[in-house]
Write a structure and sequence with these properties.
Length: 413
């Protein structure tokens, strides 16, 4: 064979090998699938005769990744397109096999509350109910947003919307806290790395100091209820009991007669473990409390263990859930019959009790034990000491600037 022919054959063989290799690589590469109009079908590819779905997904850390998913068993383009659409739906619903995205707020909310329904005593039922109400507002606002995409701007928009509706700054701050509780749980589950409200300052608001309710006002609201509500007597007993022992409205509704200890002259509040801090406390009888309990005991329902049994209990022995309607009727009655505007609330009873304890000279530590404050009485002096008119003036008369005090102390020394 001539040298020229040998060289020519070698070149031909090289070109053939390269063409074969190129064809082989082409078969191995992903190629776009085109429809009948020669337009590429987004997300659908083919390689070596097999259909693949190309999806961009975001993991729990917020990192986007491209995944090639073989569409097993799909022989025709129509079958492949249907399988692709199903995968895209699964991606949106966070059900894509093998890789989960950070859940949306509306979905994780359910996971959060299911946890507290399973883990007993982690939170009080009343607290969970309040959080559920608040989270409903958040879901309406940003429910479709994934947890790791919730932004400070969305929080600010929520705040502006709530305040624009006349909601107080204190309530808005509580709304933010409710969302923060949910997102903190997400961080525990490694779904978040940081909180969107981190470093965010609370909404400023002016706290209005509520005037002290007097016994005459309590008597007036009770008498009005007796005249206009079928549950007027129970309502009156309920209001006075809170005013004379300082108990909160929910824990008062759950009181049983077994909590009244006549021999030790005490009433146990929160024995069911559902009080605000989960602990019970003993409140010693004062004159008003003792008289009121004895009066109530004479009218007690013989077929119920509850101090305030539900009028609609039927064969079940359950306590009353609320006296809110009776309070509204009593206010309306005062306005229509006596032309008196009443802003009395259930919590005024607690203010009444604590304030009069302060004015009676009882130590803050003792009052704190009666009303279940953990701070040893700091809050008593700071917030609840709403003193009656003239009390401070009366206290001022005790101040003596004469040297007799110093002389007395010097002699004692």
């Amino acid at each position: 064979m001539k040298p020229t022919e040998t060289a020519s054959n070698a070149v031909l063989e090289s070109v053939t090998q390269k063409a074969s290799k190129s064809l082989q690589l082409t078969k191995q590469r992903y190629q776009k699938v085109r429809d009948g109009r020669k337009q590429p079908i987004r997300g659908l590819w083919v390689r070596n005769g097999r259909f693949y779905a190309r999806l961009t997904v975001e993991d729990a850390a917020g990192i986007k990744k491209v995944r090639w998913i073989p569409l097993e068993g799909k022989k025709t383009m129509a079958e492949a397109v249907a399988a692709l659409r199903k995968l895209q739906t699964q991606r949106e619903e966070n059900e894509l096999p093998g890789l989960k995205q950070t859940p949306k707020l509306k979905d994780y909310k359910t996971t959060y509350f299911n946890y507290f329904e399973t883990v007993k005593d982690a939170k009080r039922p009343a607290t969970i109910q309040k959080e559920k109400g608040t989270m409903k507002l958040w879901v309406e606002h940003i429910g479709e947003t994934r947890l790791n995409k919730i932004s400070r701007a969305q929080l600010n928009d929520f705040i502006a919307k709530r305040q624009g509706a006349g909601i107080s700054g204190r309530t808005v701050n509580l709304d933010i806290i409710a969302l923060r509780n949910v997102l903190k749980k997400a961080m525990e589950n490694n779904l978040l790395k940081s909180l969107p409200m981190q470093g965010m300052k609370p909404v400023k608001y002016i706290k209005v100091k509520k005037a002290l309710a007097y016994l005459t006002e309590i008597e007036a609201i009770c008498n009005a209820a007796l005249q206009c509500s079928k549950n007027g007597q129970q309502f009156s007993d309920y209001i006075k009991l809170m005013a004379f022992c300082g108990s909160r409205r929910s824990e008062t509704l759950r009181l049983k007669w077994s909590a009244v200890h006549w021999h030790t002259k005490q009433i146990t509040v929160g024995a069911d473990g559902l009080s605000k801090n989960g602990k019970n406390r003993e409140v010693e009888f004062n004159g008003k409390l003792k008289t009121h309990l004895k009066d109530m005991f004479k009218r007690r329902a013989p077929d119920s263990q509850w101090i305030f049994p539900s009028p609609q209990r039927g064969t079940k022995d359950v306590p009353t859930k609320t006296f809110k309607q009776s309070l509204e009727l009593a206010r309306k009655h005062l306005l229509e019959k006596e032309n008196k505007v009443s802003e009395f609330t259930f919590h005024d009873c607690r203010h009444f009790f604590i304030s009069y304890c302060v004015m009676s000279g009882i130590q803050n530590t003792t009052i704190a034990e009666w009303v279940s404050h953990k701070d040893g009485g700091v809050l008593i002096g700071k917030v609840y000491g709403h003193l009656a008119k003239g009390y401070k003036q009366q206290e001022a008369t005790k101040l003596n600037f004469e040297p007799a005090i110093l002389e007395h102390e010097a002699l004692a020394g």
